[in-house]
Design the sequence.
């Protein structure tokens, strides 16, 4: 087969496969050795052909070595015509030199009698062809070396300059190889059967000479060659902006190296690129987990993909995985993202992290899930939340700071990605779910009180709606699952009821300023921002985009129904509080009395305060002044209601002595001026006023005068001893401490509240059998006990079913075992068992198994 062709700008043979050895080098330094090797001194014709080919290579070098404008060279008709006219003759020389016959001397052993004769052996055709190809390779290599030296000299061997002008140099190199293409590809094209013997493998002719190009460049840079390759990569990394149009005419060094399988430092071009890219991500400060990086995440990811496709389209996936791994698939980035969210609250959208419609924690989760790393994601979130809450709580157990952190963390987690983890660690730090709710109630109310004081400090009378709006925007709302438990409002009921009892007087800030906003503000916050969680507009936005995750923040119908019933009761409770306070204020004003009565329907008093006082009511002795006040109130109350013939007149008025509180003025002065006032329970007051008539009292005498039970009296005396208001001598006799100095840190508005001790195991005689129950209450224990019972019943139910139980069957099975729990409590217990891996859920069958 004979090849005939003409010279073109880029060469006509780029699609031809050219297999060959990349390491084979010519043994001769003389490019004309082919003539001598063929022993053609007797045939000037072949010698002339070789010389003509040699001159053509030299002409190509001479015409291209100093070219700076490749476009000008392509359209230089004189030079193009010159090459085109010479090419047929050069191809004919190639044909003649590869098809000719050639002989080599043959040395034979001869006897002494035989006449010595010179003999020749015909050289095999493939040896001739291989030698000719070697000649072409040597000539092409000389031209490559000349162009490389010229290029590097012009660039002063600068990595940056070489990278900047590489594309124009390589275009010239392509032109040169294209001009020589018909000659240097003559053997591979016309003798395909000997390709394997040439030593080439899986490389086209042009890839082979690309390899030779990089060998030459590497020889010039030596050990610094990797620095050049890195600089060529950074040339494009730092190109801003970067678009497809800009990259159309670019021919990156690394792309050519990949095509010809030229390794760098023992790494493939792809591996070297990813190594360089990883180092760049780690060193570039603008690509760290920062607000701008997250905000422009999709843009940066697209740019990263575009850059990788410039080198090789197949690298895009790995390059993006590297970028995602750097920015998303690690605990530090998750932690930083959460911190960014906490510090970028958007008041307009009432959410943290302003760009979460284009980027959110869900993208972190999806990135982990796509790589089957959900377990690692949960572990990272768990560690991050645990560390943040632990740091906030600290060694001094600062619940205020802890809930500041929890509220912010919950608000950042708008899609409820780590809310279960957050709730778990909060409850773990505080001891239980009930304890967490108790502390949150205190935290919430402390913020509410401070906000009300701020409103008053402005000295401007705000409208009711303005107050509601101000409180609505500034009260810290907790968005966790336990907030939706039907038991949750009960904790607020207890707290508000207690504060109503403790602070209900005509001049009370609580009664005048705090209580009126509770019903309006708190109900709106709980009903709309906690139960619903998401506005209707956001619901439509997220419903399509985040369908699989909706169940995390939209409550099921049955749970919502249960909650609505509970919150309706909650509203009724506040109305009852308001009616009671209104009555107390009116009576206080009409009678010019320091007595502020509160009357409640028994069913509206939290059960935890409804203690049996039958025995105590029969025996308890009020001081004379208090007794007369109480009797006057009873007479007035029954008389007024009898005249009105109201339903109230038909009900029995029952005094709950253990809930009565008194303000008692003491003889002790305080630095602000005036006398210190003690805030006491009625029982404490009855005991303390006994010291008005006696300096010293024994336990027995106090008990006889008050008829208080042994246990209650011990608690009361212990409270006075703790505050050092009274002292006790060796004879177990109590007297007033005349040197009493109050702890001014506990004095508020001239009042000191003397709190009953919580430790009921103090010095109480074991033989006291006639004592009555103390007024202490362990709030939340019932809810916690219900949770533990539910968890036990659920585990027991699934343990006995090998095939597992569906949600409905499991609920009915548990319902048959225990009563009095809500759907929300059941779901909460089930979630905790799944989280702690006591049971599992089979997603394929939607069943729960042990």
Sequence:
């Amino acid at each position: 087969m004979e090849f005939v062709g003409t010279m073109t700008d880029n060469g006509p043979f780029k699609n031809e496969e050219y297999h060959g050895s990349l390491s084979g080098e010519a043994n001769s330094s003389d490019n004309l050795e082919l003539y001598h090797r063929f022993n053609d001194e007797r045939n000037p014709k072949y010698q002339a052909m070789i010389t003509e080919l040699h001159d053509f290579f030299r002409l190509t070098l001479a015409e291209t070595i100093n070219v700076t404008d490749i476009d000008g060279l392509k359209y230089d008709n004189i030079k193009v015509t010159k090459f085109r006219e010479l090419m047929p003759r050069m191809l004919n020389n190639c044909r003649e030199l590869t098809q000719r016959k050639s002989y080599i001397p043959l040395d034979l052993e001869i006897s002494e009698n035989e006449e010595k004769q010179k003999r020749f052996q015909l050289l095999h055709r493939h040896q001739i062809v291989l030698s000719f190809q070697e000649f072409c390779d040597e000539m092409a290599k000389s031209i490559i070396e000349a162009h490389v030296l010229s290029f590097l000299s012009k660039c002063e061997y600068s990595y940056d300059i070489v990278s900047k002008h590489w594309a124009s140099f390589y275009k010239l190199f392509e032109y040169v190889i294209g001009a020589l293409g018909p000659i240097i590809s003559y053997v591979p094209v016309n003798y395909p059967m000997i390709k394997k013997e040439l030593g080439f493998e899986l490389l086209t002719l042009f890839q082979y000479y690309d390899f030779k190009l990089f060998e030459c460049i590497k020889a010039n840079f030596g050990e610094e060659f990797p620095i050049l390759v890195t600089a060529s990569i950074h040339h494009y990394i730092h190109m801003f902006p970067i678009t497809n149009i800009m990259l159309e005419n670019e021919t990156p060094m690394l792309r050519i190296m990949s095509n010809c399988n030229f390794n760098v430092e023992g790494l493939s071009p792809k591996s070297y690129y990813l190594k360089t890219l990883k180092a760049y991500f780690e060193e570039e400060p603008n690509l760290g987990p920062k607000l701008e990086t997250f905000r422009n995440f999709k843009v940066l990811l697209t740019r990263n993909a575009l850059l990788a496709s410039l080198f090789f389209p197949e690298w895009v996936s790995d390059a993006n995985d590297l970028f995602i791994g750097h920015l998303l698939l690690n605990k530090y980035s998750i932690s930083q993202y959460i911190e960014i969210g906490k510090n970028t609250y958007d008041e307009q959208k009432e959410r943290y992290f302003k760009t979460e419609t284009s980027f959110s924690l869900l993208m972190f989760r999806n990135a982990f899930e796509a790589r089957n790393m959900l377990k690692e994601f949960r572990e990272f979130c768990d560690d991050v939340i645990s560390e943040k809450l632990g740091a906030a709580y600290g060694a001094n157990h600062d619940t205020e700071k802890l809930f500041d952190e929890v509220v912010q963390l919950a608000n950042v987690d708008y899609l409820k990605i780590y809310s279960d983890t957050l709730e778990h660690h909060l409850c773990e730090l505080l001891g239980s779910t009930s304890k967490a709710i108790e502390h949150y109630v205190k935290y919430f109310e402390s913020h509410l009180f401070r906000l009300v004081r701020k409103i008053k400090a402005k000295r401007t009378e705000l409208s009711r709606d303005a107050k509601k709006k101000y409180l609505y925007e500034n009260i810290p709302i907790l968005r966790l699952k336990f907030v939706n438990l039907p038991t949750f409002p009960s904790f607020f009921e207890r707290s508000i009821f207690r504060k109503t009892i403790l602070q209900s007087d005509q001049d009370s800030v609580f009664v005048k300023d705090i209580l009126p906003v509770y019903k309006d503000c708190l109900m709106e916050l709980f009903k709309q921002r906690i139960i619903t969680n998401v506005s209707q507009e956001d619901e439509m936005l997220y419903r399509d985009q985040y369908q699989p995750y909706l169940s995390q923040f939209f409550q099921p119908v049955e749970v919502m129904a249960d909650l609505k019933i509970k919150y309706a009761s909650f509203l009724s409770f506040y109305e009852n509080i308001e009616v009671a306070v209104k009555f107390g204020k009116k009576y206080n004003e009409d009678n010019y009395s320091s007595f502020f009565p509160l009357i409640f329907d028994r069913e509206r008093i939290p059960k935890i305060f409804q203690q049996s006082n039958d025995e105590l009511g029969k025996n308890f002795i009020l001081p004379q002044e208090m007794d007369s006040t109480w009797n006057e109130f009873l007479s007035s109350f029954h008389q007024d209601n009898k005249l009105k013939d109201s339903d109230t007149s038909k009900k029995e008025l029952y005094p709950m002595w253990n809930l009565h509180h008194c303000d008692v003025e003491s003889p002790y002065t305080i630095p602000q001026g005036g006398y210190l006032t003690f805030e006491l329970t009625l029982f404490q007051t009855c005991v303390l006023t006994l010291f008005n008539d006696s300096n010293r009292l024994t336990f027995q005498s106090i008990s006889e005068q008050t008829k208080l039970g042994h246990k209650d009296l011990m608690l009361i005396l212990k409270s006075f001893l703790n505050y050092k208001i009274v002292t006790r001598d060796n004879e177990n006799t109590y007297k007033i401490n005349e040197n009493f100095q109050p702890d001014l840190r506990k004095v508020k508005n001239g009042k000191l509240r003397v709190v009953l001790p919580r430790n009921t195991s103090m010095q109480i005689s074991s033989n006291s059998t006639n004592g009555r129950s103390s007024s202490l209450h362990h709030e939340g224990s019932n809810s916690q006990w219900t949770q533990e019972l539910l968890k036990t019943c659920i585990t027991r139910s699934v343990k006995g079913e090998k095939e597992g139980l569906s949600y409905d069957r499991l609920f009915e099975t548990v319902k048959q075992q225990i009563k009095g729990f809500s759907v929300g409590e059941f779901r909460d217990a089930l979630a905790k068992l799944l989280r702690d891996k006591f049971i599992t859920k089979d997603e394929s069958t939607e069943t729960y198994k042990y």
Observations:
- The mean pLDDT is 77.
